[in-house]
Amino acid sequence: MRSMLFVPGDSPRKFEKASEGKADALIIDLEDSVVTEKKEEARGLTLTMLKGRPGQHQLYVRVNALDTGMTLADLAAVMPGRPDGIVLPKSQGGDDVRQVATWLEALEATAGIAIGTTRIVCVATETASSIFGLGSYKNCSPRLAGLMWGAEDLSASLGATEKASGGVFHSPYRLARDLCLMAAAAAEVAPIDTVYTDIDNLTGLEQETRAARRDGFSAKALIHPKHVDVVNAAFAPTEAERSWAEKVIAAFASNPNSGTLRLDGQMIDKPHLRAAKKILGQP
Question: Where, by residue number, does the polypeptide cross the bilayer (predicted)?
């Protein structure tokens, strides 16, 4: 999964448009994009969208944060639509995942869904306190599928006046980004890069996405359909990377009992093999 496109939960029109694109996943949003007065209506519309499933996209639902008191009602409303996963905003750590997982188990049973199949992606850096919980995601739940870092709400939590300049995040946000990446790697789940908010700057989007892929992120969250193709292309392996990966895998296949090998004048070992398989999307 490379691209996860947010769609307002109260807009079937935008959902239909997004469904015509090539995003790997659509995140139907019940949180920031829906005003309080329309939350209940958005739940019903979201259920209809889920049941319609117009394409092959994975469908996630971003519920409201646990501290709003609305999370369980959101889940109860949308789970009959069998979403592939839930996005939990403003997550503080593994305990939040366990709480949502407990609710999901009961709701899956009620809806006739196989227990444990609904995944959870956490937006894990939206408050100052959440940074200190990043190490608690490891082994918190087999449902956990990814950790996404977010800058917009973190800015408000910090009381910052500016997140970035010249297209480069300031140090608090780079810290949150990097720690989220490491937390995801430690928990063996997908690290997901934050949204790009300069909608018409596709060059900047491509540069930010390539930097994310370079550092180890495997997907990016998006807020506009025209970002999808740019992000998907940026996450695709280059011909040089694909050629290297194929040679590494072939070398180890020919020498299954070797821990290290010489390839093109360089020493390679099992971490190189894992990297090669990741490039080619192999388990």
Answer: none
Neighbouring residues of 249: CB distance < 8 A, sequence distance ≥ 6: 273, 276, 277, 280, 282
d(CA 26, CA 78): 15
Strands 219-222 and 58-62: unpaired
Q: Which pLDDT belongs to residue 56?
A: 84
Residue-wise over 220-233: b if at least 16 C-beta within 10 A, else e? bbbeebebbebbbe
User: Among all chains, which residue has been given the structure tokens 């297209």?
Assistant: 167
Mean pLDDT by 10 residues, the chain (283 residues): 96 94 96 95 97 90 97 98 98 98 98 97 97 98 97 92 91 97 97 96 96 95 96 90 89 88 89 86 77
CA distance 195 to 223: 6
Residue 241, token pair as written in the block: 């990377």
* Residue 27 bridge partners (DSSP): 6, 60
d(Cα 268, Cα 262) in Å, to the nearest integer? Answer: 6
Query: Residue 215 is encoded by which pair of tokens?
Result: 């550092």
Helices 71-78, 94-111: axis angle to 10 degrees equals: 30
Distance CA 111, CA 231 (A): 35
Predicted TM-score (pTM) of this structure: 0.90
Encode burial over 117-150: b for 16+ CB neighbours within 10 A, e otherwise. Answer: ebbbbbbbbbbeebbebbebbeebbebbbbbbbb
Check: CB of residue 43 under 8 Å from CB of residue 80.
no
Q: Which helix (H) or strand (E) holds 58?
A: strand 58-62
pLDDT at site 54: 81
| Separation between Cα atoms, residue 163 and residue 51, nearest integer Å | 38
Is residue 246 within 8 Å of 28, Cβ to Cβ?
Answer: no
